[in-house]
Each structure stands twice: as structure tokens, then as C-alpha cells.
Amino acid sequence: MIDAETQEVFRQETEALIESLQAGLLALNDRPEDIGLVSQVFRDLHTLKGTGAMFGYTRLAEFIHDFEAAFDAVRSGEANVSPQLISVSLQAYDLIVALLEGEDPEQSLDAALKHALAEATGKVPAAADGADVAGACDPNGAATPAADGWRLTISLPEDLMEIGGNPVALLEEVIEIGGAQTVLRADVSRLPALDAFDPARLYTGWTIELPAAAPEADIRDVFMFHEDRMTLSLEPVAGNAAPGAAAEASPELAPEVSTAVVAAPKAAVAVAEAQTPAQGPTKASAGGKRAAATAAASSQMRVSSERLDDIMDRVGELVIAESRLADLASKLNLPELDEVVEGIQRLALGLRDTTMAIRLSPVSGITGRFRRLAHDLASKTGKAFDLVIEGEETELDKSVIDKLSDPLVHILRNAVDHGLEPTAERVAAGKPERGTVRLVARYSGADVLISVTDDGRGLDPDFIRRRAIERGVIAQDQVLKRHEVFALLLAPGFSTAETVTDLSGRGVGTDVVKTTVESLRGSIDIDSVLGQGTTFTLRLPLTLAIMEGLLFQVGSERYTVPLAAVEGIVEQPEALRGGTATSTVVELRERLVSILRLRQVFRVEGEEPAFPKVVLVRAGDAQVGLVVDEIIGSFQTVIKHLSPLHSRLDIFSGATILGNGNVALILDVAQLVRSQNITTPSQRERAA
């Protein structure tokens, strides 16, 4: 059993591969004729098999061998991509994931899936006597050739030695498989003229003849990390009376080459083995393409999230120290010190931006599993629908991405199981037969909005209210606004489903979604039009660590808002002077804007300043104005979580330490607007 550290390395190596494999299988379901996708799936399986074998996952490697053989048959034109093949392949994918996660499924599942893959590709021979089908086939799913031997022709990559490969070690492995009857001949036809010869390049090819007893799979596995970049031909040789016949045809070559291989020093073999792990899979790029397993140097490096968190914590402390240094320098008024402070500020800003960029991860990292979920939901519910994903390039803090998958899975399940109508019902309502579920990610100021929209039956607020009263969630005489009625769906144990299915309906999950999103300092909004569909919108902060903030003062306290959410700062209009209401609506820049007086919100006493300012910030799809006493300026804000005692103050998303050591609270504008029951002009227009 491999140790935990090695297992974690293996998990990181295979993470991108299994995501790419699933994406390729799902894409083939829509484009079965795409040979490029077939090749991608084959390469992913091939690399997974080699990496698994390298790290001691024997069962995994043996199972993938047959899985790979099915797509090798498709790639060679011996079989076609069919719905049956995709369905079985996805089940095989699930087994691979289970094995990667350390589970131990029943061994019978391996054999059953291997047989199903063989059936899907037409590789199961007729066996009238009931003989074991698997035993009649070789590991590649094809009948063992009736031949007297194998002829292997190889031409390795010219840069093999430059990237640490060892051709002598590879040849020695082949000879070990074939035994004493192996015959090897060198092909020097590619040798250039002496003046063009590069000793670091490999120009020689080989033809190797092996006895029939040599397993085909073992021969191919020798070159598993180079097969995508080399030329390899392995053919059964019929009528080869003696393996040494080829040697007699070229006696001047075979003996010398064979002797050189057998006498190869063990140190060369050790180098090749030591470098094999480094030639494993590299992380998939944003475009979904993967570098070859034998790439000379990877442009990416995997680092544990714990180390990134530690770096971010230290950068945060550096930013705070830099802010305090700048505050001291402004008081001392020393030009030499100011110059040093400016240099440190530039370095801290650059380090912050670089570290933030490392922590950001595109939403595409989790959307692959949603496509698989859609495939499974269509099979289980019998509903035909299209899953449309937009904004996959939108980036979020990786710690947010990691926790976001389960809430979105639950929302997608509800959208299909509860939202979409059966085909007959859709047609009767004048809708297209196929439904649409749309997942969209986009930036909105300092937040990221992720919405899941279906074009199904929609939500009936009157029905939700009645169900909530029946279950004791609200009182009979309780008055709720439209958005508050929809928010009841997030209450623990609440469900509008008439029947419970294996997908949803128990009332557990939506409250977990709410808890998870709120733990990320986010929020959920639900909007629906009866008969047209429903939209769940998750509002999440772009980052949980450091941001650029706008600092302002209200009374004697200072507060900050994300600078990315600020859309402007104006003088307080005359219409607002002398008012005492917490909120109002005025016309600013030829638009109606909801205004919040923060002195009233925070119950600040004392005389108002002579020239208060209005900070225009983005709150969802609307603009909101915050009346403040004074604008201090912008500065780097290190987000500190509030203590459990203050965590219930939803209108604050955290706190930050200023240069003078004081604390400023960070305003969550969306929660602030919601807490004051403000209906923005755009919301009133939608309600109308």
C-alpha cells in the first residue's frame, strides 16, 4: 500500500486527466463521429493506465487496459461510438474514480464492465459452449493472433535523450520480455551527414522480432509514455520458422546491437525509472488541450492549497505592515523614507496581485461534472433537455470553487426534477419539446453571479405560501413580499414536491445550499414567473483574502466597500439635505437611484457634515447610493473574518486593520440593501 503523501501526488497527477476523460465522453455523446475526441479519450485512458501502474494501482491499470482497448478499436475503425458504448464508458469512468479515491468496489464489477465494453464494440466472440469470453480475448479485446512471433518497428522521438529518456533501457525492457530468442536490428537510414550530426539527438530506429509467447500488452506498455510522439508498429509474423532467421539476413548488425543492450549498465536503467514519474500527465490548459506526457519541461507546477493559503496569509500581513509603515511615514515627513515606502508599496501590490491570480480558478474546473449530471438526469427522469453553460472562464477564489460544486448540483437537480415539465406537458403548453437549463457565470462589481435558469413550469407563490403555513414554517397571518415567499424554499425541511424521488423532494438540501453559500459570504436570490421558469442566483465574493477597498467615514467610525463595486462618487443632492428617512429615491445622472443614509442606518448622533458625499455602488442589477460623511481614499484591504459573536451581522462581510491599527468594517452592500427592505427601481419595474 502506498503512503498518504504518494497517494496525494498521484491524485493531483490524475485530477486533470479524469476531468478531461469525462468531458471527452460526454462530448462524444453529442459528436460520435469526431475522431479527435476519440483520440483524446484514448490518450487520457492510456496515460491514466501508465500512471496508475507506476504508482502501484494494479487493479486500476488492468481495468483501464480493457477500457482503452475499446476506444483503440473505435480509433482504428473496427467499432463505432454508440449510445451503448458511452453509457458503459461512463459507468467505467465511475469505477475509475472510485478506485482513485481509495474505494474497493466488488471485483465482479470490473469483469462485468469489461464484458459490456467488449459487447459495445463488437469484440465478444461467439461462444456456443459457454466458455469464458474474457479468456478468449487478449488484453486489448482482440483475439490472440495465430502467429509464430511479433515484429516490432519503432522510431523514438529525436529529443528523447534531451528530456531524460534512455533508449537503451527501453530496448533492454523489450529484450527482457522476449527472452533469449529476441532479435534486434538497428535502422540507421535517418542518420544525417557528419556536419549536421547532433550527438544529443536520437536518429536510430529499430526492428525487433520477438517470440509469440511475448504478451502484446507488455510490449506496448514499454513505450506507454512515448507512444503519442513516436512511430510504433507491432505486427504478428506468420511462418517465421526461427526467430534467428532475421539475424542471419543481417549478421553484421544483430549480434553487436543485442550484446550492447544486454550489457547496458544498470545506472542507465535507474535514471530512466527515476524520471518516469516526471513524464506523467500535465494539467489541462484552459482550452482543454493536454501537453504530451513526455514534455521536456512543464510550464505548470502543482502546489497544495494549504501552501497557497499560507502564502496569502503572509501577503495579507505584509499589506497590513506596509499600510502601517505608510501611515508612520506620512507623520514623520521624511523624503528619504517616503521613497522607500513607495517602493515597498509597489512590491506589496505586485505580490498581492500575483498571489491573487494564483488563487483564482475558472468556473470551468467544476462544470465538467455538471454535464455528466445532466446526462444522468436525462436518463433517470426521461426528460429531454439541453444544458447550456456560459461564462466558464469566469474566475473565483479556489476555496470558493471547491465548496461550490455541491450547492450547484442540488440546484441543477431541482431545476430538472421539479422545474422542467414532461415532454407531453411542454407540448400542450406550447413550449419546445426539449427543455433548457442554463448555467451562467458573470462578474458584477466585486462579486461573481452564478445563475441556474430553467424554462419549466415556474413557481407559484400562493402555493408556496400555503405549503409553508401547512408545515408551520410561517404563521397564517404573516405578510411576506414576493422574494421572501420564494426564499421559503431555502428553509430547512421545506419542499413543494408532492412525491419523493431518488433525486429530490425530501426538503433536505436547499437549506444546506443556503448554509454553504452564506459560509462563503454569499447569498441566494430566487426569481420565478409562473409557467415560464425559475432562476436561482448565487452571489459570491470574488475573493476571500485581499481586495482594493474604498474607505469612508460615518460619524466617528470608518467603513470600507470593495472598490470594484463602486461606480461613482457625487456630492449629496439638495433634495437629500435635511432628510431623516433611512432610505429614499432620487434622480441622479438621469436615473432613479435608491439612497441609503448610513448615519440613520447606524444610528449615528451629532451634527451632519457640511458636505456629505454619495457613494454609488452596484447592488445586484441596480445602483444604490450610500450617503457618507467623508471619503478617506482607496487602499488595499485585507479581509479578516468576524468573530462568532459578530458573525450574525450580515451587513458586514468582514473587517480590516488600518494603517493606524484601528479596525474598519467591510460593508456587504447586497445584504445591507436587503436588511433595509429596499426595493430598487429595477426590481419595481420587474414586479410591475
Automatic annotation (TrEMBL):
It catalyses: ATP + protein L-histidine = ADP + protein N-phospho-L-histidine. GO terms for cellular component: cytoplasm. Residues 546-678 form the CheW-like domain. It comes from the Bacteria. One of its GO terms (molecular function) is ATP binding. Residues 275-298 are annotated as: Disordered. One of its GO terms (biological process) is chemotaxis. It is an enzyme of class 2 (transferase). This is Chemotaxis protein CheA. It comes from Meridianimarinicoccus roseus.
